[in-house]
Amino acid sequence: MEHGIYNHIPDDGREFVVTNVNAVKIRAEDGRSIQNLNIDSFISNLPFDQDTTTFSTTNASGSTSQAANILEALEVGASTLLLDEDTLATNFMIRDIRMKALIAKDNEPITPFVEHVRSLYEKRGISTVLVMGGSGDYFSFADVVIGMIEYGPHDLTAEAHQIVKDDSVLKNFNVAPPSEIQRIPIPNILNASKGKRQVDIKIEDLLYMRFGEHKVQVGAVEQLVHPSQLRAIGYAIHYAGRYMDGKRSIKEICQLVLADIREKGLDCLSERGIRGDFAEFRSYELAATLNRFRALRVEQRS
């Protein structure tokens, strides 16, 4: 499904898989940096009175990084979240009744995603597709439940809803969705030059980008499928410098860059003219790469 955002070639297995172009794959990403992000709806009550409305770190935990990945995707307009339990932080996804009985809410910094999933849809129009086999906590909120039995999909919605029909605890969640806060990059910080080269951008498969003196880890941006996309994104970030004026948000900057590409083609990103080694990308992967620069600095705008 995460690759259903792309056109497919015949017989590659995606004949009947079409995904909303605004769907974004979400995962935990231990160790990534986060810059001035309001994660308060998901993470609060941190030790030492850390402010989670303007949260920054150079070494995010699994739960904190997953919260950031969701919020950054929503920041640039994602309408569908794709999640797979194999790459998620369990403590961010669920918190069962026994754990709630042991640890009081006031002592628990994480508001799990299960408490947000329904309000995200009802109040923000954000859909969630979740692969989960280890917990039934999401049954109460799911519109559709599909079970994979011997590799075949079966509609188990009625059975799942029957199981939780008397489960009043989970049905009573009424958490406000995350606030819509835009962030504005501070200009003239991300410099693509290195030594005598005005623009030095190199790609290492789909794992790293070298942008001047910066090394950016992008292996967890899972909807990138070709190095030419990442190369184009590197040059797009350099190109975006003309729009980073201390007033425009990340979303607005991404929109302007993509508008130029639609009008002029991908080669407008490079001063060399026709290159032949760029590939199309979305605003979500452009923003995701930008957000992974450890040198990035931003200000918030409500």
UniProtKB/TrEMBL annotation:
Transmembrane segments: none annotated. Residues 203-298 form the MRB1590-like C-terminal domain. InterPro entries: ABC_ATPase_C, ABC_ATPase_put, MRB1590-like_C. Residues 1-168 form the ATPase of the ABC class C-terminal domain. It comes from the Bacteria. It holds the Pfam family MRB1590_C. PANTHER family: ATPASE (PTHR38149). This is Putative ATPase of the ABC class. The lineage of its organism: Bacteria, Pseudomonadati, Planctomycetota, Candidatus Brocadiia, Candidatus Brocadiales.
